[in-house]
Amino acid sequence: MADVARLAGVSHQTVSRVVNGHPHIRPATRTRVEDAIAALGYRPNGVARALAVRRSGTIGVVSTDTALHGPATVQRSVEEAAARAGYVATTVTIREATTDELGRALDRLVRATVEGIVLVAGSDAALTLARGADFPVPLVVAQGDLTATGSAVGVDQLQGARAAARHLVELGHTRIAHVSGPLGWPEARARREGWLGELAAAGLDAGPEIEGDWTPASGYAAGLALAPADVTAVFVANDHMAVGLVRALVEAGRDVPRNVSVVGFDDIPEAAYLLPPLTTVRQDFATVGRRAIEVLHGMLTGVPDPGPRLTTPVLVPRSSTAAPSTAVRVAS
């Protein structure tokens, strides 16, 4: 840069301002500096180049501070997909997905000159903010409710839940309960809707329904409540709650799957090694992350991505489900 300044007859600071696209430079001065850059073959560093063309090469990721398998895995897959696409991901983690916290996180990323943002937060507050705000940069929401915002990608929660309920119906169960996630989450509502829809299609009434909070503790409480109920199967809205539910049922003398079949959702790494191994619905989080970056890249380049916005989850049958039995309960 010092050589450019000498050849153009200007200061080092003036060269820096020209390289960084500063607007308050006289045209004649800017021309001298640009001619000197061309003559010397000077190549600005990556940061300066990015600023000069108003491209930072950085995208923002907003995620909730949670140990939940789904959001944590989607966040990681978004960051990995961004790196493969040549972007640097800057992640802001928030404690709760409230409108205020989300707004502050998005403002922070915009001030950091990110080119676009991926929002990994499936709450209604996040979707309301994404739908109603006018952002200065493109925004993609990584969740499954495409009706909430046009720039969303995710897993087809409804079809995944229908597959889980259908599996139980095909085994012969007619009294199928549901432990939902918190119904302020679109994913929880979609899984509940899928359960209801599949039972209705089979001509069955819905069994008991209990709202959980995604944690094993809430699944355990639901299991204690359902243990005396006249049900032979339970569809649980995530695997962590299913873990708690199975323990509660067994402690109450209900064998899984001899007395009660249990299906989870997510296919956490531990699901195949539980006792019994858990039948569940596998979500392809790696594809969700890749698709979020592909859609965002299309928005940034002005070339809309034509690919599917929803990935289809897959039922993974294991030993926690079986045909209903007339066997008596195991003694507690």
Chain-wise SSE layout:
Layout: H1 2-8, H2 12-19, H3 27-40, H4 46-52, E1 58-64, H5 69-84, E2 88-94, H6 99-111, E3 116-120, H7 124-132, E4 139-142, E5 152-155, H8 157-171, E6 176-180, H9 186-201, E7 209-211, H10 216-226, E8 233-236, H11 239-251, E9 261-263, E10 280-282, H12 285-301, E11 310-311, E12 314-316
Tags for this model:
six-stranded parallel beta sheet, four-stranded parallel beta sheet, elongated, transcription regulation, disordered C terminus, Rossmann fold, 15% strand, alpha/beta, single chain, HTH_LacI, 332 residues, 3 domains, DNA-binding, 434 Repressor (Amino-terminal Domain)
Structure description:
This is LacI family DNA-binding transcriptional regulator. InterPro entries: HTH_LacI (IPR000843), LacI/GalR-like_sensor (IPR046335), Lambda_DNA-bd_dom_sf (IPR010982), Peripla_BP_I (IPR028082). With 332 residues, this protein is α/β, with parallel strands linked by helices. It is built from twelve helices and twelve strands. Residues 45-54 and 327-332 have low confidence and may be disordered.
**CATH class value of the largest domain:** Alpha Beta
List unreliable stretches of 5+ residues. Answer: 45-54, 327-332
In percent, how helical is the residue content?
40-55%
Number of structurally distinct domains: 3
> Can you tell me the CATH topology of the largest domain?
Rossmann fold
State the strand order across the main sheet. Answer: 2-1-3-4-5-11
Q: What's the end-to-end separation, in Å?
A: 80 Å
Largest sheet: 6 strands, parallel
Secondary-structure element order, as H and E?
HHHHEHEHEHEEHEHEHEHEEHEE
Mean pLDDT: 86
Specify the CATH homologous superfamily of the largest domain.
Response regulator
Q: What is the gyration radius calculated from CA atoms?
A: 26 Å
Structural classification = alpha/beta
Shape: elongated
Protein name: LacI family DNA-binding transcriptional regulator
GO molecular function: DNA-binding transcription factor activity; transcription cis-regulatory region binding
Pfam families: LacI, Peripla_BP_3
Domain HTH lacI-type: 1-53
